[in-house]
């Protein structure tokens, strides 16, 4: 009975996955080429697809099949993972009543609209009622998703980082914060402040896109199985392991945006391209968690792309494109400039060190919203106090403060921690790769990225969702989640910047 059941299950899951990826194509198109007048038509198309997915996902026959196969101990490891993941996804879908799903969708679209207006006028009060509604609905969602006896916020964390709880996260984040604050104080006291003014000279858009494309191609992003387009907000989206789309944006007076942005998205893209092709058209064919996904983008962007060996190779390429703009700069000066540490108002623009302080503050406020200790109306004050105490920055307006991020407006709670987890996982994986590949720095300096990519493919990419993040990290590094490798990386970076 096992084989016919598995065939039946795979057919059902293939349909579901196809619907999901079709929605992703429409979503990608909406961000890149959709004419402005077609937004409403597109919303209908996406809603229809979402409805179809929901009915397939909650179909009783699928539930029965998964029940039978869960009890079948003749399955091999991959099929067991397939059944486990499919059951997990179905359980989540069935725990939320249709009424709540519809109310959430409406609250999210109203939330986005209110957030845009509030941000424009820098007036948090205009966003507050919509945010209150979103928090209320997400409290209900969390309560329905949570297993008995567990904290509702853990159920929201689980949506982005399966299995992770506040109890595990809090001590790690606590030590990370203490370490970060100490390092920041040191950077200020020692006056470590490399010049980065050359990054803001004028670099024509076409040349920026050409060099960034050349670099991500060399890193290993396969343009035969992917493409690159322009959007306001960069992202990576996947339709199959043979079709991975990246987007980027270009500022002619800021060399960082397109170059590092595209390396970041290519890190996501190479992960998706490296998933075992046998997992195509199944729920195993995507990343294991948001945090592990972010570890891949950050590893390439920061640990490779801002390292001294990397610029040994990349700087001559850059100079060929921009000989005049960079005539007075060398690889060393360039690499130092890309690592300048300076507290900033804006999360997305902040450096490797201070970035996490933004996330820790978001996490604290978010938890408070769900345990009842924080009211929506308190958010601006909490944000401003946190920025002053943690980063020494006075926030001039809500627009540059608590209203800068879109996540809560679209109902994404429990998401922010993934960014910091990505930094921690990325540093752990890079240390392990360095141990396994003793000549890694020399390889990077010669533009040989295949050994590192091969290592990541083997330890992370190919597994898709068949292994959990915890299993992959333990097997690749021999350790559980911790802040130690990341703080060690920052220590080394600061010491490098300090030696002139
Ligand atoms: Zn990312």
Give a short synopsis of this structure.
The protein is mainly alpha-helical. Helix content is 64%, strand content 3%. A three-stranded mixed beta sheet has the order 1-3-2, with helices on both faces.
Structure description:
By secondary structure, the chain is mainly alpha-helical. The chain contains 20 helices and three strands. Helix 1 (2-32) runs antiparallel to helix 2 and helix 12 packs across helix 13. The longest helix is centred in the first third of the chain and has 31 residues, at 2-32. The radius of gyration is 23 Å and the shape is globular. It starts with a helix and ends with a helix.
